[in-house]
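Students often ask why inverse folding is considered easier than folding. One informal answer: many sequences map to the same fold, so there is more than one right answer. In these notes we will look at a single instance of the problem. The structure comes first.
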């Protein structure tokens, strides 16, 4: 019979291995007091209730962790070829992940220090930052890194967190915050104007690329007509996190404000004819089935309430 540490090591390896291939895009919050916001609140409450039930079920199933029964149960399921739910795996491995989090934190800090030095060096070279400004930039990025680390730690300590929360925290842990606000507070005059102009071009290119990618995928699934393509492109552009009103995107100037992901999803779906909506919903179901099949190949399965398209229907 495998020891607790051996089985935990296997399960932790599975969890960490999956993290690299399963990422989520962060989304903007729904408009205040909108139907989308109310739906999001209800969804959150339902998820919390499900998570509380999952905790109770996991406790019932695991029994006494010190006895190793939970590890033996999962090991038996794996050996027998029975599917293992990712939330069950995460619930079991969470204490061990918390134990090794200091090691993960040291590795992350080393990598982010390298990245922050690269960014600070680039900003200093391009915009003539003084040594004091460069040091402030590095300090700011270090503070952002600590904020991300705290979010990650809270997920591991929260009894109700699930595998989806873990994935989201992992993605957030890999990103710095908004660099633009900091740089614009440090620069002035021509250098500030130069920075804003260059960032506007970069954001416009990002928006165009994102909108084209989403439009291409949607068009492949539902065969949009020309007017639908033009309208969907602009909606995808306005739904990008890099979009701002007045931005020139692919030769067209956006005259309307940005959209939250929930708003963008609703407006794009409203462009589709009923048969196209049915086609796309069928495509979503197929994507979930495909994800499940891939996990089943290694003896895992998605949690019952896992929503691959919770944030972005068109990603």
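Output (designed amino acids):
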């Amino acid at each position: 019979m495998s020891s607790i540490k051996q089985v935990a090591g296997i399960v932790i390896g599975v969890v960490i291995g999956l993290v690299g291939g399963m990422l989520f895009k962060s989304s903007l919050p729904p408009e205040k007091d909108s139907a989308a916001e109310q739906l999001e609140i209800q969804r959150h409450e339902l998820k919390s209730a499900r998570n509380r039930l999952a905790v109770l079920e996991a406790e019932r199933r695991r029994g006494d962790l010190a006895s190793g029964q939970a590890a033996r149960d999962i090991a038996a399921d794996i050996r027998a070829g029975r599917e293992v739910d990712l939330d069950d795996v995460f619930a079991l491995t969470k204490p061990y992940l918390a134990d090794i989090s200091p090691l993960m934190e040291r590795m992350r800090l080393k990598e982010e220090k390298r990245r922050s030095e690269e960014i600070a060096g680039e900003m200093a070279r391009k915009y003539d930052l003084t040594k004091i400004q460069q040091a402030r930039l590095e300090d700011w990025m270090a503070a952002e890194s600590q904020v991300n680390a705290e979010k990650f730690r809270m997920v591991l300590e929260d009894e109700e967190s699930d595998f989806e929360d873990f994935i989201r925290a992992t993605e957030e842990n890999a990103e710095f915050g908004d660099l633009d606000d900091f740089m614009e507070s440090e620069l002035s005059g021509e250098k500030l104007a130069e920075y804003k102009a260059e960032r506007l071009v970069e954001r416009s290119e990002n928006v165009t690329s994102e909108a084209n990618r989403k439009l291409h995928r949607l068009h492949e699934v539902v065969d949009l007509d020309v007017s639908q393509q033009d309208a969907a492109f602009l909606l995808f552009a306005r739904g990008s996190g890099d979009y701002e009103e007045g931005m020139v995107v692919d030769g067209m100037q956006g005259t309307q404000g940005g959209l939250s992901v929930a708003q963008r999803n609703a407006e794009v779906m409203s462009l589709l004819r009923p048969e196209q909506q049915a086609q796309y919903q069928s495509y979503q179901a197929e994507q979930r089935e495909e994800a499940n099949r891939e996990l089943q190949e290694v003896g895992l399965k998605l949690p019952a309430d896992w929503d691959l398209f919770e944030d972005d229907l068109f990603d």
